[in-house]
Protein backbone atom coordinates (compact mmCIF):
# COMPACT_ATOMS: atom_id res chain seq x y z
CA UNK A 1 0.00 0.00 0.00
CA UNK A 2 1.43 3.34 -1.07
CA UNK A 3 1.87 5.81 1.74
CA UNK A 4 0.39 9.28 1.22
CA UNK A 5 3.07 11.94 0.83
CA UNK A 6 2.99 14.42 3.68
CA UNK A 7 4.16 17.99 3.14
CA UNK A 8 5.58 18.56 6.59
CA UNK A 9 7.22 21.89 5.81
CA UNK A 10 4.05 23.54 4.50
CA UNK A 11 2.25 22.52 7.68
CA UNK A 12 4.64 24.44 9.87
CA UNK A 13 3.32 27.54 11.68
CA UNK A 14 3.18 30.75 9.62
CA UNK A 15 5.87 32.50 11.64
CA UNK A 16 8.26 29.60 10.93
CA UNK A 17 7.51 29.80 7.18
CA UNK A 18 8.18 33.55 7.28
CA UNK A 19 11.45 32.85 9.06
CA UNK A 20 12.44 30.43 6.29
CA UNK A 21 11.61 33.09 3.69
CA UNK A 22 13.82 35.58 5.50
CA UNK A 23 16.89 33.54 4.56
CA UNK A 24 16.08 33.63 0.83
CA UNK A 25 16.75 36.33 -1.76
CA UNK A 26 13.50 38.20 -2.47
CA UNK A 27 13.05 36.68 -5.95
CA UNK A 28 13.37 33.16 -4.59
CA UNK A 29 11.21 33.95 -1.57
CA UNK A 30 8.34 35.09 -3.83
CA UNK A 31 8.61 31.81 -5.75
CA UNK A 32 7.65 29.88 -2.61
CA UNK A 33 4.08 31.06 -3.26
CA UNK A 34 3.91 28.29 -5.91
CA UNK A 35 4.61 25.52 -3.42
CA UNK A 36 1.27 25.27 -1.64
CA UNK A 37 -1.72 27.18 -0.31
CA UNK A 38 0.06 27.77 2.99
CA UNK A 39 3.07 29.35 1.28
CA UNK A 40 0.80 31.35 -1.03
CA UNK A 41 -1.01 32.84 1.94
CA UNK A 42 2.25 34.51 3.01
CA UNK A 43 2.19 36.51 -0.21
CA UNK A 44 -1.45 37.58 -0.21
CA UNK A 45 -1.10 41.37 -0.12
CA UNK A 46 -2.64 43.24 2.77
CA UNK A 47 -4.80 46.06 1.36
CA UNK A 48 -4.19 49.34 3.16
CA UNK A 49 -5.94 52.63 2.28
CA UNK A 50 -3.94 55.75 3.08
CA UNK A 51 -5.02 59.34 3.35
CA UNK A 52 -7.29 61.62 1.40
CA UNK A 53 -5.95 64.60 -0.46
CA UNK A 54 -7.26 67.96 0.63
CA UNK A 55 -7.61 71.17 -1.32
CA UNK A 56 -5.32 74.14 -1.72
CA UNK A 57 -1.89 74.82 -3.21
CA UNK A 58 -0.11 72.45 -0.82
CA UNK A 59 -2.44 69.49 -1.43
CA UNK A 60 -0.03 67.63 -3.70
CA UNK A 61 2.94 68.18 -1.40
CA UNK A 62 0.99 67.03 1.66
CA UNK A 63 -0.42 63.98 -0.13
CA UNK A 64 3.02 62.94 -1.40
CA UNK A 65 4.53 63.37 2.07
CA UNK A 66 1.76 61.28 3.63
CA UNK A 67 2.29 58.57 0.97
CA UNK A 68 6.02 58.49 1.61
CA UNK A 69 5.35 58.19 5.35
CA UNK A 70 3.25 55.10 4.58
CA UNK A 71 6.12 53.58 2.57
CA UNK A 72 8.52 54.43 5.39
CA UNK A 73 6.24 52.70 7.91
CA UNK A 74 6.11 49.63 5.65
CA UNK A 75 9.92 49.55 5.70
CA UNK A 76 10.05 49.74 9.48
CA UNK A 77 11.41 46.22 9.75
CA UNK A 78 13.31 43.92 7.37
CA UNK A 79 12.89 40.81 9.52
CA UNK A 80 10.96 38.92 6.81
CA UNK A 81 9.74 39.52 3.24
CA UNK A 82 6.29 41.06 2.98
CA UNK A 83 3.80 42.27 0.38
CA UNK A 84 1.20 45.02 0.76
CA UNK A 85 -1.28 46.65 -1.56
CA UNK A 86 -1.24 50.35 -0.78
CA UNK A 87 -3.95 52.67 -2.05
CA UNK A 88 -3.33 56.42 -2.09
CA UNK A 89 -5.59 59.29 -3.10
CA UNK A 90 -3.60 62.15 -4.63
CA UNK A 91 -4.98 65.36 -6.17
CA UNK A 92 -4.19 63.95 -9.64
CA UNK A 93 -6.08 60.73 -8.96
CA UNK A 94 -5.91 57.37 -7.21
CA UNK A 95 -2.67 55.41 -6.98
CA UNK A 96 -2.53 51.71 -6.18
CA UNK A 97 0.87 50.18 -5.50
CA UNK A 98 1.80 46.58 -4.83
CA UNK A 99 4.79 46.97 -2.51
CA UNK A 100 7.09 44.03 -1.85
CA UNK A 101 10.05 44.27 0.50
CA UNK A 102 12.94 41.89 1.09
CA UNK A 103 15.23 41.32 4.04
CA UNK A 104 18.22 42.84 2.19
CA UNK A 105 16.72 46.35 2.37
CA UNK A 106 15.03 45.81 -0.97
CA UNK A 107 11.74 47.34 -2.18
CA UNK A 108 9.73 46.60 -5.34
CA UNK A 109 6.87 48.94 -6.25
CA UNK A 110 4.50 47.87 -9.01
CA UNK A 111 2.05 50.66 -9.85
CA UNK A 112 -1.41 49.50 -10.88
CA UNK A 113 -3.83 51.75 -12.71
CA UNK A 114 -7.15 51.54 -14.50
CA UNK A 115 -7.67 51.85 -18.24
CA UNK A 116 -8.67 55.50 -17.76
CA UNK A 117 -5.45 56.21 -15.89
CA UNK A 118 -3.55 54.26 -18.55
CA UNK A 119 -4.71 56.80 -21.15
CA UNK A 120 -3.38 59.62 -18.97
CA UNK A 121 0.09 58.07 -19.23
CA UNK A 122 0.15 59.01 -22.91
CA UNK A 123 -1.05 62.56 -22.54
CA UNK A 124 1.04 65.26 -24.27
CA UNK A 125 2.27 66.52 -20.86
CA UNK A 126 6.02 66.10 -20.50
CA UNK A 127 6.55 63.55 -17.73
CA UNK A 128 9.76 63.33 -15.76
CA UNK A 129 11.13 60.96 -13.14
CA UNK A 130 14.21 61.75 -11.08
CA UNK A 131 15.76 62.71 -7.77
CA UNK A 132 15.83 66.47 -8.38
CA UNK A 133 12.96 67.34 -6.02
CA UNK A 134 13.91 68.52 -2.50
CA UNK A 135 14.10 65.57 -0.05
CA UNK A 136 11.69 65.18 2.86
CA UNK A 137 12.85 63.75 6.16
CA UNK A 138 11.08 60.37 6.07
CA UNK A 139 12.04 57.71 8.58
CA UNK A 140 13.38 54.43 7.11
CA UNK A 141 13.66 55.57 3.46
CA UNK A 142 17.34 56.37 3.90
CA UNK A 143 17.98 52.74 4.87
CA UNK A 144 16.77 51.42 1.50
CA UNK A 145 19.49 49.92 -0.73
CA UNK A 146 17.58 48.41 -3.69
CA UNK A 147 14.55 49.96 -5.40
CA UNK A 148 12.57 48.63 -8.36
CA UNK A 149 9.91 50.89 -9.92
CA UNK A 150 7.53 49.33 -12.43
CA UNK A 151 4.74 50.95 -14.47
CA UNK A 152 4.87 54.37 -12.79
CA UNK A 153 1.63 56.09 -13.82
CA UNK A 154 1.31 59.79 -14.53
CA UNK A 155 -0.65 60.38 -11.32
CA UNK A 156 2.26 58.90 -9.34
CA UNK A 157 5.00 60.94 -10.98
CA UNK A 158 5.51 63.38 -8.06
CA UNK A 159 5.32 60.53 -5.57
CA UNK A 160 7.96 58.43 -7.40
CA UNK A 161 10.32 61.39 -7.87
CA UNK A 162 10.05 62.34 -4.20
CA UNK A 163 10.71 58.73 -3.27
CA UNK A 164 13.94 58.73 -5.31
CA UNK A 165 15.01 62.03 -3.76
CA UNK A 166 14.63 60.57 -0.27
CA UNK A 167 16.47 57.30 -0.97
CA UNK A 168 19.81 59.04 -0.69
CA UNK A 169 21.86 55.88 0.06
CA UNK A 170 20.36 53.75 -2.70
CA UNK A 171 22.80 51.26 -4.28
CA UNK A 172 20.63 49.72 -6.99
CA UNK A 173 17.77 51.22 -9.02
CA UNK A 174 15.62 49.65 -11.74
CA UNK A 175 12.98 51.58 -13.70
CA UNK A 176 10.87 49.34 -15.93
CA UNK A 177 7.88 49.54 -18.27
CA UNK A 178 6.94 53.15 -17.50
CA UNK A 179 4.83 54.05 -20.52
CA UNK A 180 4.52 57.76 -21.27
CA UNK A 181 7.60 58.64 -19.26
CA UNK A 182 9.64 61.21 -21.24
CA UNK A 183 12.67 61.95 -19.11
CA UNK A 184 14.72 60.27 -16.38
CA UNK A 185 17.18 62.41 -14.42
CA UNK A 186 19.48 61.04 -11.73
CA UNK A 187 21.55 63.97 -10.48
CA UNK A 188 24.39 64.33 -7.95
CA UNK A 189 24.18 60.81 -6.62
CA UNK A 190 27.28 59.35 -4.96
CA UNK A 191 25.88 56.07 -3.59
CA UNK A 192 24.20 54.51 -6.66
CA UNK A 193 26.16 51.51 -8.00
CA UNK A 194 23.71 49.93 -10.46
CA UNK A 195 21.09 51.49 -12.75
CA UNK A 196 18.74 49.58 -15.08
CA UNK A 197 16.26 51.30 -17.40
CA UNK A 198 14.17 48.82 -19.39
CA UNK A 199 11.26 49.03 -21.82
CA UNK A 200 10.29 52.66 -21.19
CA UNK A 201 9.35 53.11 -24.84
CA UNK A 202 8.52 56.85 -24.73
CA UNK A 203 11.78 57.98 -23.15
CA UNK A 204 13.33 60.98 -24.93
CA UNK A 205 16.16 61.82 -22.55
CA UNK A 206 18.17 60.03 -19.87
CA UNK A 207 20.62 62.04 -17.75
CA UNK A 208 22.74 60.30 -15.13
CA UNK A 209 25.27 61.93 -12.83
CA UNK A 210 26.39 59.29 -10.34
CA UNK A 211 30.06 59.25 -9.42
CA UNK A 212 29.89 55.78 -7.86
CA UNK A 213 27.95 54.10 -10.68
CA UNK A 214 29.54 50.77 -11.69
CA UNK A 215 26.87 49.20 -13.91
CA UNK A 216 24.43 50.78 -16.38
CA UNK A 217 21.89 48.80 -18.41
CA UNK A 218 19.61 50.46 -20.96
CA UNK A 219 17.09 48.39 -22.92
CA UNK A 220 14.75 50.11 -25.34
CA UNK A 221 14.80 52.59 -28.21
CA UNK A 222 17.89 54.70 -28.83
CA UNK A 223 17.39 58.12 -27.28
CA UNK A 224 19.51 60.91 -25.82
CA UNK A 225 21.61 59.38 -23.06
CA UNK A 226 23.94 61.67 -21.13
CA UNK A 227 26.37 60.01 -18.72
CA UNK A 228 28.15 62.49 -16.45
CA UNK A 229 30.97 61.77 -14.01
CA UNK A 230 30.99 58.09 -14.97
CA UNK A 231 34.65 57.54 -14.17
CA UNK A 232 33.84 54.39 -12.14
CA UNK A 233 31.64 52.75 -14.78
CA UNK A 234 32.77 49.18 -15.46
CA UNK A 235 29.85 47.38 -17.15
CA UNK A 236 27.50 48.95 -19.73
CA UNK A 237 24.70 47.34 -21.76
CA UNK A 238 23.08 49.25 -24.65
CA UNK A 239 20.43 46.79 -25.81
CA UNK A 240 18.80 48.97 -28.44
CA UNK A 241 15.63 47.88 -30.23
CA UNK A 242 15.62 50.76 -32.72
CA UNK A 243 15.85 54.54 -32.93
CA UNK A 244 13.38 56.79 -31.11
CA UNK A 245 10.92 58.80 -33.22
CA UNK A 246 11.43 59.81 -36.82
CA UNK A 247 14.15 62.42 -36.41
CA UNK A 248 17.58 62.32 -38.02
CA UNK A 249 20.16 60.00 -36.54
CA UNK A 250 22.53 62.21 -34.54
CA UNK A 251 26.13 61.00 -34.78
CA UNK A 252 27.21 63.70 -32.32
CA UNK A 253 24.90 62.34 -29.62
CA UNK A 254 25.99 58.73 -30.08
CA UNK A 255 29.70 59.56 -30.22
CA UNK A 256 29.33 61.72 -27.12
CA UNK A 257 27.76 58.74 -25.34
CA UNK A 258 30.55 56.38 -26.46
CA UNK A 259 33.15 58.92 -25.37
CA UNK A 260 31.60 59.02 -21.89
CA UNK A 261 32.04 55.23 -21.71
CA UNK A 262 35.77 55.20 -22.35
CA UNK A 263 36.45 53.87 -18.84
CA UNK A 264 34.25 50.77 -19.14
CA UNK A 265 35.68 47.25 -19.13
CA UNK A 266 32.62 45.36 -20.41
CA UNK A 267 30.31 46.64 -23.17
CA UNK A 268 27.26 45.14 -24.85
CA UNK A 269 25.93 46.99 -27.88
CA UNK A 270 23.56 46.45 -30.80
CA UNK A 271 25.18 45.78 -34.15
CA UNK A 272 22.85 48.11 -36.05
CA UNK A 273 24.12 51.09 -34.03
CA UNK A 274 27.69 50.52 -35.27
CA UNK A 275 26.35 50.01 -38.80
CA UNK A 276 24.50 53.33 -38.70
CA UNK A 277 27.57 55.16 -37.40
CA UNK A 278 29.77 53.78 -40.16
CA UNK A 279 27.11 54.31 -42.84
CA UNK A 280 27.01 57.95 -41.74
CA UNK A 281 30.75 58.09 -42.44
CA UNK A 282 32.25 57.66 -38.97
CA UNK A 283 35.71 56.05 -39.14
CA UNK A 284 36.42 54.85 -35.62
CA UNK A 285 40.18 54.90 -36.12
CA UNK A 286 40.03 58.69 -36.59
CA UNK A 287 38.04 59.46 -33.45
CA UNK A 288 39.62 61.50 -30.66
CA UNK A 289 38.88 58.86 -28.03
CA UNK A 290 39.35 55.13 -27.50
CA UNK A 291 37.72 52.59 -25.22
CA UNK A 292 41.15 52.05 -23.77
CA UNK A 293 40.00 49.91 -20.81
CA UNK A 294 37.52 47.71 -22.69
CA UNK A 295 38.30 44.03 -22.13
CA UNK A 296 35.04 42.38 -23.20
CA UNK A 297 32.76 43.33 -26.10
CA UNK A 298 29.40 41.66 -26.76
CA UNK A 299 27.86 42.42 -30.19
CA UNK A 300 24.16 41.50 -30.62
CA UNK A 301 21.79 41.77 -33.57
CA UNK A 302 19.05 39.96 -35.47
CA UNK A 303 21.38 39.05 -38.33
CA UNK A 304 24.88 39.42 -39.69
CA UNK A 305 25.51 40.91 -43.12
CA UNK A 306 28.45 42.52 -44.90
CA UNK A 307 27.69 46.05 -43.62
CA UNK A 308 27.43 44.89 -40.00
CA UNK A 309 30.59 42.80 -40.37
CA UNK A 310 32.53 45.76 -41.75
CA UNK A 311 31.22 48.18 -39.10
CA UNK A 312 32.26 45.75 -36.38
CA UNK A 313 35.73 45.57 -37.93
CA UNK A 314 35.86 49.38 -37.89
CA UNK A 315 34.74 49.57 -34.25
CA UNK A 316 37.48 47.18 -33.11
CA UNK A 317 40.00 49.93 -33.91
CA UNK A 318 39.01 51.80 -30.72
CA UNK A 319 39.31 48.68 -28.53
CA UNK A 320 43.11 48.39 -28.15
CA UNK A 321 43.20 45.96 -25.16
CA UNK A 322 40.16 43.84 -26.00
CA UNK A 323 40.48 40.32 -24.55
CA UNK A 324 37.09 38.69 -25.22
CA UNK A 325 34.69 39.13 -28.14
CA UNK A 326 31.19 37.64 -28.29
CA UNK A 327 29.16 37.97 -31.52
CA UNK A 328 25.51 36.93 -31.08
CA UNK A 329 22.84 36.47 -33.76
CA UNK A 330 19.30 36.39 -32.37
CA UNK A 331 16.59 36.18 -35.10
CA UNK A 332 13.88 36.91 -32.50
CA UNK A 333 15.13 40.48 -32.26
CA UNK A 334 13.53 43.15 -34.46
CA UNK A 335 15.46 44.04 -37.59
CA UNK A 336 16.51 47.70 -37.76
CA UNK A 337 16.89 48.96 -41.33
CA UNK A 338 19.74 51.40 -41.96
CA UNK A 339 18.56 54.67 -43.57
CA UNK A 340 20.33 56.56 -46.32
CA UNK A 341 22.62 59.28 -44.94
CA UNK A 342 23.10 62.48 -46.95
CA UNK A 343 25.89 63.88 -44.79
CA UNK A 344 28.98 62.04 -43.66
CA UNK A 345 30.96 62.45 -40.46
CA UNK A 346 34.33 61.57 -41.92
CA UNK A 347 33.67 59.97 -45.29
CA UNK A 348 31.61 57.05 -46.61
CA UNK A 349 33.73 53.94 -46.33
CA UNK A 350 31.48 50.89 -46.26
CA UNK A 351 31.63 50.79 -50.04
CA UNK A 352 35.19 49.45 -49.78
CA UNK A 353 35.73 45.81 -50.64
CA UNK A 354 36.33 43.44 -47.75
CA UNK A 355 40.11 43.03 -48.23
CA UNK A 356 40.45 46.81 -47.83
CA UNK A 357 38.24 46.83 -44.72
CA UNK A 358 40.25 43.96 -43.28
CA UNK A 359 43.57 45.65 -43.94
CA UNK A 360 42.43 48.72 -41.99
CA UNK A 361 41.83 46.75 -38.78
CA UNK A 362 44.56 47.27 -36.21
CA UNK A 363 46.16 44.27 -34.54
CA UNK A 364 44.19 42.93 -31.59
CA UNK A 365 47.21 42.20 -29.43
CA UNK A 366 45.31 41.06 -26.32
CA UNK A 367 42.38 39.14 -27.83
CA UNK A 368 42.34 35.59 -26.42
CA UNK A 369 38.71 34.41 -26.79
CA UNK A 370 36.14 34.71 -29.59
CA UNK A 371 32.66 33.17 -29.53
CA UNK A 372 30.11 33.20 -32.36
CA UNK A 373 26.62 32.49 -31.00
CA UNK A 374 23.59 31.75 -33.19
CA UNK A 375 25.51 31.17 -36.41
CA UNK A 376 24.70 28.36 -38.83
CA UNK A 377 27.20 26.29 -40.78
CA UNK A 378 26.01 26.88 -44.33
CA UNK A 379 28.06 26.06 -47.39
CA UNK A 380 26.79 29.12 -49.26
CA UNK A 381 27.38 31.62 -46.44
CA UNK A 382 30.87 33.16 -46.34
CA UNK A 383 30.22 35.67 -43.56
CA UNK A 384 31.38 33.41 -40.76
CA UNK A 385 34.38 32.41 -42.83
CA UNK A 386 35.29 36.03 -43.54
CA UNK A 387 34.84 37.03 -39.89
CA UNK A 388 37.10 34.22 -38.71
CA UNK A 389 39.60 35.18 -41.39
CA UNK A 390 39.58 38.85 -40.33
CA UNK A 391 40.01 38.11 -36.64
CA UNK A 392 42.67 35.43 -37.08
CA UNK A 393 44.73 37.69 -39.27
CA UNK A 394 44.80 40.43 -36.63
CA UNK A 395 45.28 38.47 -33.41
CA UNK A 396 48.53 37.42 -31.73
CA UNK A 397 47.68 35.55 -28.52
CA UNK A 398 44.31 34.05 -29.47
CA UNK A 399 43.61 30.85 -27.49
CA UNK A 400 40.06 29.86 -28.44
CA UNK A 401 37.39 30.38 -31.11
CA UNK A 402 34.00 28.75 -30.59
CA UNK A 403 30.96 28.69 -32.88
CA UNK A 404 27.56 27.74 -31.44
CA UNK A 405 24.33 27.35 -33.41
CA UNK A 406 20.75 28.01 -32.26
CA UNK A 407 20.41 24.24 -31.83
CA UNK A 408 23.19 24.46 -29.23
CA UNK A 409 25.64 22.57 -31.46
CA UNK A 410 29.19 23.80 -30.88
CA UNK A 411 32.24 23.83 -33.07
CA UNK A 412 35.81 24.63 -32.16
CA UNK A 413 38.12 26.26 -34.70
CA UNK A 414 41.44 24.55 -35.17
CA UNK A 415 44.39 25.07 -37.48
CA UNK A 416 44.89 22.34 -40.10
CA UNK A 417 47.43 21.89 -42.93
CA UNK A 418 46.24 22.74 -46.41
CA UNK A 419 48.15 22.13 -49.62
CA UNK A 420 45.44 23.51 -51.85
CA UNK A 421 43.85 26.52 -50.14
CA UNK A 422 40.55 27.59 -51.62
CA UNK A 423 37.93 30.20 -50.78
CA UNK A 424 35.15 27.60 -50.49
CA UNK A 425 33.92 25.60 -47.55
CA UNK A 426 33.80 21.82 -47.62
CA UNK A 427 32.12 19.36 -45.32
CA UNK A 428 33.47 16.01 -44.24
CA UNK A 429 31.33 14.27 -41.64
CA UNK A 430 31.80 16.36 -38.48
CA UNK A 431 34.42 18.69 -39.88
CA UNK A 432 33.98 21.92 -41.81
CA UNK A 433 37.11 23.52 -43.16
CA UNK A 434 37.50 27.25 -43.62
CA UNK A 435 40.18 27.51 -46.30
CA UNK A 436 42.13 30.73 -46.55
CA UNK A 437 44.62 32.03 -49.16
CA UNK A 438 47.70 30.96 -47.23
CA UNK A 439 49.63 27.76 -46.63
CA UNK A 440 47.24 26.52 -43.94
CA UNK A 441 43.51 26.53 -43.25
CA UNK A 442 41.16 26.37 -40.29
CA UNK A 443 38.51 23.78 -39.57
CA UNK A 444 35.38 23.80 -37.46
CA UNK A 445 35.35 20.61 -35.37
CA UNK A 446 31.97 19.68 -33.94
CA UNK A 447 32.06 19.44 -30.16
CA UNK A 448 30.06 16.42 -28.96
Summary keywords:
single chain, 448 residues, alpha/beta, 18-stranded mixed sheet, four-stranded parallel sheet, 11 helices, globular, At1g61320/At1g61330-like
In brief:
The chain has 448 residues and is of the alpha/beta class. It contains 11 helices and 22 strands.
The backbone outline, from C-alpha atoms, is globular
Structural class: alpha/beta
Count the strands? 22
Helix content: 10-25%
Main sheet specs: 18 strands, mixed
Distinct helical segment count: 11
End-to-end C-alpha gap: 45 Å
Q: What assembly state would you assign to the polypeptide chains in this entry?
A: single chain
The radius of gyration over CA amounts to: 27 Å
Strand content: 25-35%
Poorly predicted regions: 117-126, 420-440
Mean of all residue-level pLDDT scores: 78
Describe the protein.
The two termini are 45 Å apart. Mean pLDDT is 78; it is low at 117-126 and 420-440. It contains eleven helices and 22 strands. It has an 18-stranded mixed sheet. The chain has a four-stranded parallel sheet with strand order 5-8-10-12. By secondary structure, it is α/β, with parallel strands linked by helices. Helices cover 22% and strands 30% of the residues. The chain is globular and about 70 Å long. Helix 4 packs across helix 6 and helix 8 (271-279) crosses helix 9.
